[in-house]
């Protein structure tokens, strides 16, 4: 059975909570993402578990290299972050700009969770910026302070371009 044109996106089906469409993909043994998809933004935990159990990688990237973990971190979905990590999501995976999930952590809670699972606060993106510098520039000051307390970066380091 092949998915219809209007239902070819497993991620949208999961995000919309359309279990029947997700099962249709499962029956098709669909295991990759249609190029251009945005990933995992509004997923329900049960659907994420179902997708992972069917072989869809939690490290799957979209055209920008964005992953389900980065999406969950950027939206501060703590339960989903934990679920993805427990199912093999790479806390140091990089997108096309070299950003790791720690670079999109807007809250201390999300940043601490990533750090507890091995996120490296010293990884620099393609612009040469650390997660602390990114957090400072985005004005996520609590996160910037947390990361600087670990890395030893000074505020001047975070302001440098």
TrEMBL record:
InterPro entries: Ankyrin_rpt (IPR002110), Ankyrin_rpt-contain_sf (IPR036770)
Entry keywords, A to Z: ANK repeat, Repeat
ANK repeat ranges, renumbered to this chain: 64-96
Name of this chain's protein: 9201_t:CDS:1
